[in-house]
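chain below, 335 aa
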Amino acid sequence: MRSGQLKLALALLASVAVTAEARAQASYPCVNDGPDPYHQMTNWMQTPRPLGPVNAVTVDARDNVWLFDRCGAQGCSESTESPIFELSANGKTMKNFGAGEFASAHGVAVDKDGNVWAADFQAKNGKGEQVIKFSPDGKVLLKLGTAGKQGTGPGEFNQPTGVAVLSNGDIVMIEGHGSKLNKSDVNIYTKGGKLVRTFASHGTGDGQLTEPHSVAVDAQDRIYVADRTSNRINVYDKDGKFLHSWKQFGRPSGVFVDKNGLIYVADSQSDEKTNPGCKMGIRIGSVKDGKVMYYIAPPAGTNDKTPPPEGIAVDSHGDIYAAAVQRQEILKYVK
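prediction:
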């Protein structure tokens, strides 16, 4: 084959590959049905006190479950309760710490060293608007943000909502929950608290965010942000390059990606006003093509006062832990 013909053939093959990749990552209509291979367990959890409102839940490398609640109806700022819990997979409380540090819980992550990162999204009584790093036994190691102050200046956060951990130990933090400050972005910090980069901005365009509510990272360090009020999951690479946006998972409050490349999305708000044609529930799909494979309907008793779960996490066995704010509980689903 002549050189010119070879170059043309290679260019055509590259074009086909790019087109196929674009199709594979396309956004589809919201999926409202599908197989449900899960059943909900009851009375699986034992905690030293009843939970307050809770949407922050994650699972560590040992399949222990971590949750971060709001202490009670009045929040944590004036409470003596400890809002961070470590539970075994069978629901036994192993640790409980964090009293006196927070205003209102929103996101939690555990790094590969077992340190706990907790995002406090409101300001009250000189607390909140921070991400706090704890050692595995509950010692405060680091604080990011300015305690009790919401803002857009250096060292100030605008309602941080979620945290996740990259493979090199860097921390992904998102901010911009329901605020009038028009600051919605993604921040990458080292484990020592140094800001590496910030990307995305407030808006409805490609790669922008209006209400980043939860964040997850996959095995390739791609970053998945639940942009709730825009009814989409935005996907970026670790350097902040926008890759694609998915609407087939509904109006996402929570997102989690497991080691097998399955993405789990909790939709706690979709209705004909906020997201026409889409129902609430948990959707499970593949990060390879964005296609929804399974759908879990909202639990019994769901209504306007007790909507379905917002937070979501999955262990190595595929067991799902879903955090329901108004129900004040962690639901567990097993295959």
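The chain has a mean pLDDT of 93. The chain has one helix and 24 strands.
thats it, cya
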